[in-house]
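Case study 2.
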Amino acid sequence: MVLNGKRKRCCKKHQVRIRELNAQNPGLQREVKAHEETHGDEYYEAAAKTSVSLKFGNKAYKGTGDEVLTGIYKDYQTGLKADVDKKIKANSFADQKALDTYVASQNAQFGKKFEGAAKDVFGQMQGGVLAEFDKSKKTQTEVNAIENRVNNKAIPIKLGGKAPYLTGQKQVINKGKVVPSN
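Prediction:
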């Protein structure tokens, strides 16, 4: 379990229950872990594909989060180089130290603005993931489709094609009784 960003063990009562459940259902924990990891993979894929838009300075950017942030950074580097070249031609720097100080100052200012832009982009990416996977806003058919898609990815890749619990070939047992699948 993760609480406030720190890994925390379950209480002893839950640890005992988990051991009992695992003993009654060998391989179930492995299948559940693979299934949940595959959800994580899908979240990452959705975030990477989410289209975002952002106005930064005088320019509007649109694309994936990576494309937008890369575009902002490349445009900044191009603009800084042009600005520095212009100032060098105008003899605006007394020496290399003055040039380095100027560039460091520009980079610091850009860094603060870029951090804000990144937070905005990540927020939009998170919104894209939530829109795609928030089960509270999905019909049962849509939820089932998500779960089936995850299983279809997890079983061959992470479980080597063997997943008797996820495929319904084996039933989950708890305290000697079959646990309903839905």
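The mean pLDDT is 91.
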